[in-house]
Amino acid sequence: MRLASPCPGIRSGKSRKGLSVLVPDPKVVRELLTRYASLRIADAERGNPATTRELEDVSYTLCVMMGTTGIREAVAKADALLLGVGRTASTTGEPAGRGGLLAV
User: Fold this and answer.
1) Helix 49-66 × helix 71-92 angle, to 10°
2) Which of 7, 47, 80, 94 has the greatest count of CB atoms below 10 A from its CB?
3) Exposure of 66 by Cβ count < 10 A (0-12 exposed, 13-18 middle, 19+ buried)?
4) Distance between CA atoms of 27 and 64, rounded to whole angstroms?
5) pLDDT tens digits for the chain (104 residues)?
6) CA neighbor of 51 nearest in space, from 60, 63, 43, 59
7) What are the sequence ranges of the domains in the chain?
8) Residue 40: is it exposed, middle or buried by C-beta count within 10 angstroms (0-12/13-18/19+)?
9) Which residues pair with residue 23 across a beta bridge?
């Protein structure tokens, strides 16, 4: 895999405790994770420049949405978000994800 671990253009920073945090729409996160996995496979099989560039773009977007500086951490946070939303929706009877960003 040619993709570097850190996400390009993202700087690390300290979290601000006590402030509201925007949470990405789980539906969008799920779509990005699916696209990321598909592109990783395609890049490993063919490795053409267009696939590599699209993989970098999706990786960057995941990092920004999840507030991370590395794709591994972004994927882990995205998985945790989706697991948490699934549990919350099943216990409250509400549909998972309402579109847009949710403030928590």
Assistant:
1) 60
2) 7
3) buried
4) 16
5) 444 445 544 444 445 566 666 788 999 999 999 999 999 999 999 889 999 999 999 999 999 999 999 999 999 999 999 998 766 555 545 444 444 443 32
6) 43
7) 23-88
8) middle
9) 102
